[in-house]
Amino acid sequence: MGDQTEATTRDRWGSKIAFIMAAVGFAVGFGNVWRFPSLAYEYGGGAFFIPYILALLFIGIPLVTLEVSLGQYHQTGDVGVFGSIHRRLKGVGLGSVIAAWVLVTYYAPLIAWVINAFFDSFRNAAIWEDSTGSEAYSYFLEEIIGEKTLGADFLPTRMVWANVGYIAVTWFVVWLCLAWGIEATGKVTYFTMGLPAILIFVFLGRAVSLPGASVGINAYIGEWDMSVLVNQPECWSRAGVLTAFGSYCPRDGPAFQNSIIISVCNSLFSFIAGFAVFAGLGYLAYEEGVELDQVAVSGPSLLFGAYPVVLATLPGGIHWVRLLFFTLFLLGIDSAFALTDAVVTVTADSVPGANLSRKQIVSGWCVLGFLTGLLYATDAGFRFLDVFDFYINFLVIIVGLFECVAVGWIAGLEQQCEELGSKTMLAYIFTTFGSIIAASGVWFGIPADGNALLGGFVTLFVFYLTGMAVTLFLLKKTRDSMPEESQRSWKELLYTLYFKNVQDYVEKIKKQIGYMPFIWGVLIKHVIPPVLIVVFVLGAVATNSEGESVFGHYGGYVAWPYQILGAQAEESEAVEKPVAVAEPVATETKAEAEAVA
């Protein structure tokens, strides 16, 4: 499929700018406004940008490039892309689509709550104008989401019918954005992404002019606590469905250049939003006569409590609050229709989908999304979102790992086995992945003390060196068995072992999609998979304050329905806690969730 000539009937973006706007709109979401700035504040201020930039360069951009370039080259969605690499890899693409679908089923209700808050501000303006951030956020939880009827067990007791209607509105808007084809969708993103980009500068300009703004900005970027890079190693894992979009680009488009533009724009939006947010929080602390750490600096309590209260204190304050909610709606809606389009594209590229029009496919998925979203229209909807968002992140990491393995290890593996021997390749694969898994077991599986870090690295090197000794022994046997006149040099053999398969794949696709650097293949094969394994293990073995594994006990929620449904979603999403006032972490792009969030 991937080597066929470009189909002339496939939809196309109206322009390169339309593709960039759509992709950036997908990448930029709620998390850029509330998650990124709070992480920078929590993990050493400016020092956090060291792991963040490294993660962006060595994980984020390569993963975005992988998805865009593969979709563009193969001219199909995730299932078709990975099925083109190997017929047994269709499950990797399916896993990516499942992750996108689970994400959008709770992202749409989050947008619905924003719509509810927007219209509620016309009826109850005083709650934003005459309240503290904590009071405003409590109102959002109890009245907008409907949690005032929840009991101590947080089990759902009723439907919040206003939110049912707003979820329907959200899915109708998604339908309008997708039903008329990808060219029309591209035109929509000029508004849904272009206007928020302008408005974030409006918020920034207003916020930095307020008294106390410098205190907030200094806390965000001015203080560099380098000790967190050692004393709080989790900052490295915190710093990190474009295949479908890429498939609508011409095959000869500059995929690598586009991927860099998308990644950098996403990061710049987060960086600029941080100034607007923390300048406003500095002003709020100044007005209330408290320290900055006494006002909400992260999560939905920031976005639906502290920040609206900040804006409400300005001249024409309630209009600033409404403008904030409208901006959040735009940020959310283009992420929602992008996630939905990933599922729509795979469906349209399937055999059953070939007999259906785009409007029929989009309509079917939007109706299903609405029905699934009813779970979040209960008074416990926020709790379900919290749990699903936590568990889906494990699936996102696994999918990213398998995507890299598909391109870096499976592509060209049969030829490697023919050239080097299947035993050699099996030993090499076992050595590479076994060493990092064994080291992770030592790092995170024994009590944290001064020896755990050292012990993990010792395990890593001993395992790897031992395994490579076996691999080279088998490789020597293969070389010795070659006829003398065709015997290859050790340099050639080692290149074939380490790089040849992935670089052959790069050479194949770059004939169509343009320039791809050598280092990209190296990162996809040798750097990103070990990092994602470590991040996955770090999350899986994390414990709560009672010493229980967070996995299966997240947030202290009861097993049924929360933990079981959330874990099942992960097997087929991160939002912060505590249980009393859970604070979600809106997931951004898949690549960013793996590399940055």
The overall pLDDT, averaged over residues, is 85
Q: Helix segment count?
A: 27
Distance between the termini: 33 Å
Q: What overall geometry do the principal axes of the alpha carbons give?
A: globular
How many beta-strand runs? 0
Structural class: mainly alpha
Largest sheet: none
Q: Percentage of helical residues?
A: over 70%
Range of strand content: under 5%
Enumerate the spans where pLDDT stays under 50 for 5 or more consecutive residues. 1-8, 228-240, 573-597
Q: What's the SSE pattern? A: HHHHHHHHHHHHHHHHHHHHHHHHHHH
What does this molecule look like?
The structure is a single chain. With 597 residues, the chain is an all-alpha fold. 73% of the residues lie in helices and 0% in strands. It is built from 27 helices and no strands. Helix 5 runs antiparallel to helix 6, helix 11 runs parallel beside helix 16 and helix 17 runs antiparallel to helix 18. The two termini are 33 Å apart. The N terminus and C terminus are likely disordered.
Features:
597 residues, globular, disordered C terminus, 27 helices
List the helices and strands and how they pair.
Layout: H1 16-27, H2 30-34, H3 36-42, H4 49-74, H5 78-85, H6 90-123, H7 126-129, H8 133-145, H9 161-178, H10 182-192, H11 194-208, H12 213-222, H13 228-231, H14 234-238, H15 242-247, H16 255-288, H17 299-312, H18 317-349, H19 358-373, H20 381-410, H21 413-420, H22 422-445, H23 450-480, H24 490-513, H25 518-540, H26 559-571, H27 590-595
Helix pairs in contact: 1-10, 1-16, 1-18, 4-5, 4-16, 4-25, 5-6, 6-9, 6-18, 6-19, 6-20, 8-17, 9-18, 9-19, 11-16, 11-18, 12-16, 16-17, 17-18, 18-19, 20-25, 20-26, 21-22, 21-24, 22-23, 22-25, 24-25
